[in-house]
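User:
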Amino acid sequence: MYSIQDYDYDLSEKLIAQKPAAQRDRSKLLFMHQKSGRLSHHAFCELDDLLAPSDILVVNNTEVVPGRLYGRKETGGKAEVLILDYARGCREGTDNGNFLCECLIKASKRPKIGASINFDQELKAKVIGCRDDIYTLKFSFSGNFESLLYRIGNVPLPPYIKRSRGEGDSRDRKSYQTVYASQKGAAAAPTAGLHFTKRLLEKVKEKGVRVVAITLHVSYGTFLPVRVADIRRHSIHSEWFHIPAKTADMINRTKANGGRIVAVGTTCIRALEFVADERGHVAHGSGNCDLFIYPGYRFKIVDAMITNFHLPRSTLLMLVCAFAGRDKVFKAYKEAIKKEYRFYSYGDAMLIA
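Assistant: Predicted structure:
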């Protein structure tokens, strides 16, 4: 249960989705009955048939920013920068054309403290710190940083989605974003939510299901594999979240009345479980969530989940196994592979309830 090898599986590269479904809600949906492990196959647009009027659907309204930047070091070498905590930089404010945030840097040689990187439209960045391969950069610019970023930045697609520089960026800006995204700050999309259309959300609401939003700005660390033999020794990345008072109140009232809390994605689960007390009461507020959920965890608030099919050895897969049981989850993955479901960010989905 705690060995990293317990969360490995083989997947044909052809099942790694490179593009989204032609229509968001026409992706496949594998339904797993949580207790029995019984499986059935559906289209995602049939989700409302699998929910009850007493349910509450919790979505993550974070918005992915085009935070991948291509530049050159002073030496002329190429450098690729990925902004990790755009929202924190915004919260702390810009000062006289400066913007401070943490980033990943990909270059032939590790940049040193004090090194500069030049981008298009006179955007520059200076390395002022580095810890655990995460760099603190101070951007300097003229005008508005957000406007500049949206002009020259690229969508931070995960590495298993293959694109040449700039290829499909305008399409991905729309497709790698949920229809309810409203709070800028994510370095990666909460991908379980990519399957929703506005019409499907209306169908869900017409059934009586309430839909509420929280914010958790997904970090790129969500894609990083666990590299320790014993998963209990892994330290998970931290992500900023906000749970509005109205959302917390509706969740608590639904739970008290016997309704199910249906979380859309692992990000919602982590945030809700992080703030829930032992009685299953959710508190509103903001903070940094570093909750690592793996088998053995006792869930306090979430009753059902919608999730995509995740990478081997990932914390996301471990969370799903903690929720439904490793054997049942791997049986479901085996069935999904047999039926040629599409995997990972642009892939198909599961409902576990």
